[in-house]
Amino acid sequence: MIEILEPSIVTLNVNGVDRKVTVKPSDTLLFTLRNELGLTGAKPGCENGDCGACTVLVDGWPIKSCLMLTVEALGKNILTVEGLKNTTIQKAFVENFSFQCGYCTSGFLMVCHALATVQPDANEAVIEEWLQSNICRCTGYEEIGNAIKSTLNQINTMQG
Amino acid sequence: MIPFDFEYYKPDTVEEAHKLYTQLNLKGKKPIYYGGGTEFISMARMNNRYAGAVIDIKGIPECNVNKIEKGKLVMGSAVTLTKIAESNLFPLLGYISRRIADHTIQGKITLGGNLLGTIIYKETMLPLLLTECQLVIYGRDGNRIVNIIDIYDRGLNLNEGEVLVQITIDEKYLTLPYRHVKRTKLEKIDYPLITMAAIKDGDNISVAFSGLYQYPIRSLEVERLLNDSKLPKKKKVLQIVNNLGIEVLDDIGGSSEFRKFIMEDMLNQVIEKLQEVC
Ligand SMILES: Cc1cc2nc3c(=O)[nH]c(=O)nc-3n(C[C@H](O)[C@H](O)[C@H](O)COP(=O)(O)OP(=O)(O)OC[C@H]3O[C@@H](n4cnc5c(N)ncnc54)[C@H](O)[C@@H]3O)c2cc1C
Ligand code: FES
Ligand code: FES
Fold it and tell me: What is the SS3 assignment for B243?
């Protein structure tokens, strides 16, 4: 049985690196990433599961870090936007002008990166379903859609 | 940020979980069972829910089962909506799961959490009411197995400290013709104005609704009228809608009149797609 009863030092695997960090059982993953680990890529928006600005990948699956306790992520691989390095989706966001103010961008990047990894053969309906988890207040949906579609196209072309 | 502290426990067995609950409760810690935590975290953040200890049930093997065994679909209470949808062992439940929140949150919400949360919609309850499933509940005297109809009264009424372990559904229900319609006020992803689920077993249609009242409902009176072959379609739909009583939700999401209007359309769809076609 795992028991964490008070603030404790735990090891979290973030962006491929084991990081020691002090957590309280009531800390959300979003709080720990930003306030304890200095990884401010995941953004606080609604903190209610609605906007997706806080999205990170946990074991490869997009998750809203405002709705996960840090202690639930022990033993799992966490990937934040800081861990994305020169990925196709990042380039596609630049090429397709897929951000304006940029507040939603890290969340969208994580969702799109997960989709490109988990389901590169996604059709229009799946793309639409996945993008619905995030909100862009600047309404750049068209450009974000273009970025993910061009990424999936590139992956599929490379795979022949 | 959650404005209070609590202890976190992740037991390996149901016995351990229940024992912990009992001990922590005696110590005045106000423990709760914790599934996906989506409801607990969002309510705790607003100071609408307090717990001095959370008992995370996701490490318990029985709560993570999702398979067909001896003619029954067995689903653990910690199985996520994503797993239910992807395994597609029960297409109606899978379909409903895919329309709850969004695909990222579906990976966190558990079946047990959706059934036992405080929100009024609990959409996964609909197929369970239609299939008259059985629930495995662990409490003071160990496991007890109950029919949902015997324990459901505007919600699943578990005794203090009991934990929902599994839900089992007779395999015969899994492949019956079904219909699911979810109508929201505006966005595709939203709590329902009304969600309807229906199945057809032989000539008989069963139907259940979320968003009509303060709780999900399956009404035998509605089904009696719906299945009355002597009543013409228009008349039976009107009789059903006009006899819903005063409890129909009337809020900022939609007036009771609008909800009845939507329900009328849904009933017409059920009759067309299930009664007249299959
Ligand atoms: C943005 C968003 C949109 C949503 N939209 C919808 C929607 O349209 N329709 C819908 O139906 N739901 C919707 N939900 C889900 C709903 O509001 C709850 O958040 C969810 O159902 C809770 O599930 P959970 O596993 O996270 O529960 P938790 O937060 O872990 O638990 C909820 C409650 O159930 C109890 N509990 C959990 N598991 C057990 C168990 N095994 N035994 C005993 N008690 C248990 C807990 O103690 C707690 O009181 C939405 C949620 C979000 C965040
Ligand atoms: S901040 Fe997490 S979903 Fe909005
Ligand atoms: S670019 Fe401003 S919120 Fe999306």
Answer: coil
